[in-house]
Amino acid sequence: MTTPSHLIHLAQGLMHQCQQVHRQGIEALAQACHTSRGLSAERLDQHQLLSYDMAWTSAELLAAQTALDQVLTSPDSLDAELALVFTVEVITAVMSRLDMLCLELSLEPEPVHAMRASAAWADLRRAAGSEAALARTGQRLQATQAEVGEVHLDASIRLVQETFQRFGQEVVAPMAEHIHREDLTIPETLLQPLREMGVFGLSVPEAYGGSGTGSEDDNLIMVAVTEALSQASLGAAGSLITRPEILCRALLAGGTEAQKAHWLPRLAQGQPLCAIAMTEPDHGSDVASLTLRADRVEGGWRLNGAKTWCTFAGKAGVLMVVARTDPDRSLGHKGLSLLLVEKPSTEDHAFRVDQTQGGVLTGRAIPTLGYRGMHSYDLSFENWWVPDSHVIGETSGLGKGFYFNMTGMVGGRMQTAARACGVMRAALLAAQRYTQDRKVFGQPLTQYSLTQAKLARMAARFVGCRLLTYQTARTLEQGGSLASSLVKLLACRSAELVTREALQLHGGMGYAEETAVSRYFVDARVLSIFEGAEEILALKVIARGLLEQALRSTDASSEGPAAATASQLASQREAV
């Protein structure tokens, strides 16, 4: 007899087989792109499609494995059933990619073919991926009306989560539609209560006036609060703490003690609010090629150039600007520094600030499909003066801005995954409610097997992403950039898929602006673009990181068993 526990072990065995072939593909691609000088950027660019697919496979396998591990102790639960649905979806997609991987890299395809033809795969698909199985899972989902993707949190974290969920539903959600449709800036009636609740101090250590304790609980609370606020509205609340998270991490990584003492307590109070000015019109995600110039003058620097997609730049009172402080362009990212630009806060969609020192800063909000409330701006700096005291790290921070900024982005990407989970949860709940109430051809929409299958798959994807997001938060300090990038990649695309299906289940009403699900859909679309565009994240961070790990493991193996074991342990920690 096939029991739930047996199915989970069956799924884990199939996952292990996928992981083995995937690992062989990573090693083969690493060798194909390797030269005596290390990984070749030119060779990597020749294999972008393979690298992209490898990144996706890594993210999906990690999410499915995490979900299976976490439900093993409750095999009869709805979450376990959904984890199996998600695993079937993942293995189906992964086997197709592995086929191409074997073909392109001349690997033996037999393991993939054998797995596809195995009785284990047939049993798992029949039990968790068939039409009958999906309908059964969808019916159970609708009948129980239980929260899915349950994570185990300490009572104190659970209390914080519930507090912000309540605030989100009672205060943010009623205002969200008006802010979105009228393209308004987040009002003080939302910002001030959030300041009082300490939302801007979550990433600031207690010693500097925040609530951070330096434990893994800090990341878990950040994820819980971000998810709760994003469920109410991504644009009106869910993204508010990402920018202070990035700036605070950068200050903690590179700021002088005087800078930390001055800025961190103020940022913790949300006075001033902040924004990050990194992207430039001609360079996008290519940070190493940024050209906004900071020229040395007596007592400080003069900024000249443009930035774009600077979110919340109008309302912000301080901008963290990535600028080129060394005129030698050949230095690439090593010539960049972080400068703090103070400016008046405004809710206007266009502004101009004139300095007494003769500089000018202008900004214009970019009209967007969704993600309204925060507003992203084009910025232009003309001889804008910044004192030496506002360079993060001052003299010792010159040329280190790229590294300080990347330190901040690690937390930002994890947080973006939490935002995606919040939007997915809102869309899933909306779809569940609507399909129960809406009657088509004489019966509720939820009674049809296609609806049941759609809801099951939506919930399964949400569960996979949510469990991985919280697991990443627990291990962020060990997993670093690769871990947060993997979960960001998967959760953000998943939010697009889940909100798309939720809108589709609403039919014509889903396309109407008066229905919240239309806002979820257009808001979700931005998630795969900001905090590291999907393609850049997959190619430049994840794939490159995986290939470098593979080469390190190969080098360590050639030095002997002890070195190999140490390298493997390091790689495992980096990949969560």
Descriptive overview:
With 576 residues, the chain is of the alpha+beta class. It has a domain at 274-400: Butyryl-CoA Dehydrogenase, subunit A, domain 2 (Beta Barrel), CATH 2.40.110.10. The chain is built from 19 helices and twelve strands. It has helices at 4-32, 41-46, 48-71, 78-105, 110-116, 119-128, 131-144, 155-181, 188-196, 216-232, 234-238, 242-254, 257-268, 401-437, 449-474, 476-505, 516-524, 534-559, 561-574, and strands at residues 34-35, 38-39, 274-277, 293-297, 300-311, 318-324, 336-342, 350-354, 360-365, 376-387, 439-440, 443-444. The strands form four sheets. The chain has a five-stranded antiparallel beta sheet with strand order 4-5-10-9-8, with no helix packed on it. The chain has a three-stranded mixed beta sheet with strand order 3-6-7. The chain has a two-stranded antiparallel sheet with strand order 1-2. A hairpin with a 2-residue loop joins β11 (439-440) and β12. The longest helix has 37 residues, at 401-437. The two termini are 34 Å apart. The relative contact order is 0.12. Mean pLDDT is 91; it is low at 561-576.
